[in-house]
Amino acid sequence: MAHVAALVHRVRGLAPTLLVLAALTGLVLCTTPLPLGGQLTVFALVWIAVMVLRRIPGRFPTLTMMALSLLMTLRYIWWRATETLDLATPMEVTIGYLLFAAEAYTWLVLILGYVQTAWPLSRRPKPMPADPAQWPTVDVYIPTYNEPLSVVQPTVYAARSLDWPSGKLNIYLLDDGRRPQMQAFAEQAGVHYLTRNDNRHAKAGNINHALSVTQGDYIAIFDCDHIPTRSFLQMTMGEFIADPRCAMVQTPHHFFSPDPFERNFDTFRRVPNEGSLFYGLIQDGNDLWNAAFFCGSCAVIKRAPLAEIGGIAVETVTEDAHTALKLHRRGYNTAYLRTVQAAGLATESLASHIGQRIRWARGMAQIFRIDNPLLGKGLKLFQRLCYSNAMLHFFYGIPRLIFLTMPLAYLVFGMHVINTSAAMIAAYVLPYLVIANITNSRIQGKYRHSFWAEVYESVLAWYIVLPTTMAFINPRLGKFNVTAKGGRIEDDYLDWTISKPYLLLLGLNVAGLGMGVGRLLMGTTTEPGTVVMNMVWATVNLLMLGAAIGVAKEARQVRVSHRIPMRVPATLLLPDGTTLACKTENYSLGGLGLLLPIDVALGEGERVGVCLSRGAREYHFAATVARNVNRHLGVRMQDLSPEAETQLIQCTFGRADAWIDWLDDQPRDAPLRGLKEVIEMGYQGFLRLYDAAIDMLEAALVRRRTRQS
């Protein structure tokens, strides 16, 4: 044992030397120029290595893949900076350096992303004291402004059902809309109603007003459409007991309705949505560095630290992340629990989705401008990096637009913006892109499929460029906008207004492709490889823009209430007084789907009863038959009393295990399958554009005939 201890001590002593040697080796590998054949050989060796590593489970193979990806990235960066920027004309210099700057942004985000996601913490809930008398007091805030009562009711009922001592729990409906209907509902539901005379600072001001008139030790905050499970407080509050310096615990934002991408392309529960990467991986990675931040809902904040920083931040429109940044600057800790403990409604239309993202982008740019995490006191290095990457993410608008238009520089104007041959570009850029894609697929595969990030950015890039730029120049510009929830898409339609920038970019890339084809067919080029390379680039752009147009084709929403799978025992009470044991298939705010063991003659509109259990207690609900097909029975719950509605929420949305399998049924990413998905989306987008154009033309002809007659 003494020999082993001595060996360990010697290795530890050599650690600094080994790190220096590794850094020097990496520097040599990244900066050594190679001819075309040598660079392709390096690519082949690294590709074989990552293809083997991606099949080996564990953290070490993932870290090794990251290291190899960084090697290929740094080789490409060095080559781009030293071999390709000797450009001939002032215009080529200008355009070439714009492209280089856009690429530099992607390199920075890639490297910071690896830092964020290298080792997700996967924190587990801490236990509460055995004696509930020792548990602290909690105020539950449910802010609302203009949302319909049907959206707010389930959240309030679920909050009433939280497993917490009743004498230590107070629920507050914070109504910035000052609506008598909402006040009457709060009184009927047995919760506190708070309002104020103005709407200053929007949601942040609403919460800060409530802070001034309530006394709970902790504040649990839920957007009015986020329905908490009964276990929310018992899952989150133990962290505060275990760590007295913990000021905030955040849980995921999960959505039981499809967002515009999922609904319009029918990928709901088949492909991870836009938020899955952040709540499934990035926040967990931030948590390792004590950089998990507040997301505005589904979180608990300790009152004393919040009062110390002056309440919820009001200087920016992303008050949540800014509040967490202030807490971290004061030396407080935060925690992230990846277990879903609440679920809400996603944005219904692409227009509202874009509006929400514009607010996020503008707010992050504001924070980056007025309270930059790289500057100032109180943050550790990796906290600064995690916050900076979160904010830099929303500056992708300009780089993405550069990538979507750059092929035109050569195809239309004949400008050389990268001074090298097409073969050398391919030899350096392909290793960087391919290895990074395979590595990210390994890291993110459960939470985002390959090439979907490019689709999301292509959809949003045009719309976030101006807000982020203006917020960076003048962070006081702009105002808070509320994201509409609870609406319904009545008919299929292409949103031509939203699609205008996509159509413009689409037309430009089509023109570029046409010019490229002309150059090849007419033999007017001495660089056919460069023409082909730029045509391939333009074709990729067309796929992304086609997908963007496809998302803008809003699909009709058949149901107001969204069905959520649930398999639990139930009892059906038939009209003749007999009972039938069965199982639930799904539930919604409006009813239940039941799977019957035998055929039962029940017609639409017949009255039945359904019994569901919550622990040892059983609840009875009156219902009417909505459909009965092949032992699949759908029932609607109508005219339920407030107490019965609360019980139904407890048995469905409020169950402790309601969202425990939220990722289990989604397939992991395979890069080629992700590419196939995006190609199909682009193709569908072009078909939808064609159909919408024909419909618009036919409608115009009908209007013309009508006027003539």
TrEMBL record:
Domain annotation PilZ: ranges: 557-654
Its membrane topology: Multi-pass membrane protein
Functional pathway: Glycan metabolism; bacterial cellulose biosynthesis
Any Gene Ontology biological process: UDP-alpha-D-glucose metabolic process
Cofactors required: Mg(2+)
Subcellular location: Cell inner membrane
Gene Ontology CC annotation, any one: plasma membrane
EC number annotated for this UniProt entry: 2.4.1.12
Function summary: Catalytic subunit of cellulose synthase. It polymerizes uridine 5'-diphosphate glucose to cellulose.
Name the record gives this protein: Cellulose synthase catalytic subunit [UDP-forming]
Species in which this protein is naturally found: Cupriavidus cauae
